Amino acid sequence: MLRALAVDDERPSLEELLYLLSTDPRIGSVEGAGDATEALRRINRALESGPHGPEAIDVVFLDINMPGLDGLDLARLLTGFAKPPLVVFVTAHEDFAVQAFDLKAVDYVLKPVRKERLAEAVRRAAERLDAAPRIPVHEPDPDHIPVELGGVTRFVAVDDITHVEAQGDYARLHTDKGSHLVRIPLSTLEDRWRSRGFVRIHRRHLVALRHVGELRLDAGTVSVLVGGEELQVSRRHTRELRDLLMRRP
Questions:
Q1: Which residues pair with 191 in a beta bridge?
Q2: SS3 115
Q3: pLDDT tens for each residue of 121-145
């Protein structure tokens, strides 16, 4: 049984797609996302939970024309994942098919979606999944995060990360020894590492409380010294940060 995620920014289209998928006997579960950024968060959580976890996703039914991060952008990001879900594009536009199949899409379904045509896409996804080699899949290591450095994958200890900086749909991890860019949004890392003492201080920054050396107040502006850098704290996050630092062991 396939576990599916449907992604479309137009609510009526999303609801119709969810309904059609829910009636297919090969679909075991299906959830919806209203944009590609939300979908990326769901996929990251799914990968964290492992192939048999409660949030696992086998196939994404993905619209293309969406504001911000569009469907093709999301599919490109997924090609960098070690074990991404399959992708079926569901779109009103015919002229992106070549790009879609270059990105290894399983199928390209045009709107308005016909039940029989969608069923064919589900069949292809199920066959592709059944044909995939059965290799052991290791659960992700919660204490380390993989980063690419000169074509080599290295594993950075989460405890060594002083702060994280948002860079579009990427995040830059800062340590005392340097920085690393990863294909994960800051909001995803915020959810993932909240229990490990990371806290949002600004729309662009997360900091590890253990690495905060000073809290500074200058003419109404609050900042923290972390990893040798001074980072501004936004007003909305100041009180929470102060409270957390006061309770820090």
A1: none
A2: helix
A3: 999 999 998 876 544 444 456 788 8
